[in-house]
From TrEMBL:
Coiled coil ranges: none
Gene Ontology terms describing biological process: methylation
Domain PG-1098 ferredoxin-like: 279-321
GO molecular function: methyltransferase activity
Keyword Transferase: yes
SUPFAM superfamilies tied to this protein: S-adenosyl-L-methionine-dependent methyltransferases
Species whose genome carries this gene: Winogradskyella poriferorum
Name the record gives this protein: Class I SAM-dependent methyltransferase
Domain of life: Bacteria
Keyword tRNA-binding in annotation: no
Length: 393
């Protein structure tokens, strides 16, 4: 950590060049002696990435930023706030603290929080930023979270861990056992030191396989932001042997969409099928990731169009965790029949359909945009259809 970065002149330079072309800045050179221009550029690039993802950090003076990869890997403030609402008690230890966003929000719910970070420079950066942010109940330790847990040798109300999902070659890792530290191997140790363990994993992990790797799983939270799944949160509770509750949330600018169900319910439910009725529903990405394909039909009293289409329909308009549409008409997938509709511009979506969106646009000469929404899908009789819709709020 180069504290010269915090000099007023350099901070002003960083802030005034957040929208500047980086290549141009490098060619022009940084007008400060005694500091590597690459460090200044790194601060500019990292801060730019924080404007929407970490607005508290972005808007606070004298924040020191790590490299872009650390910013990319850290939780957003939106998801960190969500996680913080799940915990309570006197003590929590974050075994893989990173840039410290999750730890910061945990400190608003927990009396004493410990931030562990094995990278010495990053640990120093986080400690500095907490001081700037006027946080007084977080202790920063520059050591492995596993080592810290053993050396502290105390009971915690919560352990939080976000295992690294990249190997030494920076390749993304998709299996729990490939992450570092190996949560599968250490989970018994975690539950020895805390009654509750929260594990953040990649949204790419297979839920069934990961559930099989973990013990005493009480809840799984599937978190999406603006319909993009960002993370899976696994809540383990010491000695818990009950039902796994799956909670899905899609955090949007206007509202949060929630849908909860028990893991064991989905395989036992047979959805009812129907041709498109008055309204059409498309589940959000969190619901789809959670695999709530039949249970959502049963719980919300809507019909599926086809076993593999994952589109739903009803005659009565309902609140639904996803997009809602008014069905205007249904057209057989046929070039001549579609031509009769006169649709030249539309938003196109495919579900359980053998042709890509781009190929559909070329084949039917449909421009992107407009007020019409077209769903190319397969109905309950295995016929290929086009559902013409208007979007509802």
């Amino acid at each position: 950590m180069n504290k010269s970065i915090l000099n007023t002149e350099i901070q002003e330079f960083i802030n005034s060049n957040l929208k500047s072309d980086i290549s141009g800045l490098l060619l022009k050179g940084i007008p400060f002696e005694g500091i590597d221009s690459k460090i200044v550029i790194e601060q500019i690039e990292a801060k730019k990435r924080c404007e929407k993802k970490l607005p508290t950090w972005f808007s606070t003076k004298n924040i020191y930023y790590p490299n872009k990869l650390n910013i990319e890997q850290t939780s957003s403030e939106l998801t960190a706030k969500y996680k913080a609402d799940l915990v309570s008690g006197k003590s929590l230890i974050d075994l893989t603290g990173g840039f410290g966003i999750d730890t910061y929000y945990f400190s608003k719910q927990i009396e004493a929080v410990t931030h562990c970070e094995i990278n010495a420079e990053l640990s120093e950066i986080v400690k500095h930023n907490y001081k700037v942010l006027d946080v007084t109940n977080i202790t920063c330790l520059n050591e492995s979270g596993i080592d810290a847990l053993k050396s502290i040798d105390n009971q915690f109300d919560w352990i939080y861990i976000d295992p690294s999902r990249r190997d030494e070659s920076k390749n993304k890792m998709f299996l729990l056992s490939d992450c570092a530290p190996d949560v599968k191997a250490f989970q018994n140790l975690f539950l020895d030191y805390a009654k509750n363990v929260m594990i953040k994993t990649s949204p790419l992990l297979d839920i069934t396989a990961t559930k099989g790797d973990l013990k005493h799983v009480k809840q799984l939270h599937v978190i999406a932001v603006n319909n993009e799944v960002k993370e899976l949160l696994w809540i383990l509770e010491r000695d818990y042997e009950g039902e796994l509750k799956i909670k899905t949330i899609n955090i949007t600018k206007s509202d949060n969409e929630n849908f909860d169900f028990n893991y064991s319910e989905e395989p036992t439910i047979e959805a009812e099928f129907s041709n498109p009725l008055t309204y059409l529903y498309e589940p959000n990405s969190a619901v789809l990731k959670a695999g709530a394909f039949s249970i959502i039909s049963s719980k919300l009293n809507v019909h599926k169009l086809h076993k593999h289409s994952h589109l739903y329909t009803s005659n009565e308009l309902i609140n639904f965790p996803g997009r809602r549409f008014k069905v205007e008409k249904v057209i057989p997938f046929n070039k001549k029949e579609f031509a009769k509709s006169g649709i030249k511009k539309a938003n196109v979506t495919t579900r359980n359909f053998p042709i890509s969106v781009n190929d559909i646009r070329k084949k039917l000469k449909i421009k992107d945009g407009g007020q019409s929404y077209l769903f190319f899908t397969t109905d309950k009789t295995n016929s290929k259809i086009v559902i013409v819709c208007s979007k509802l709020m």
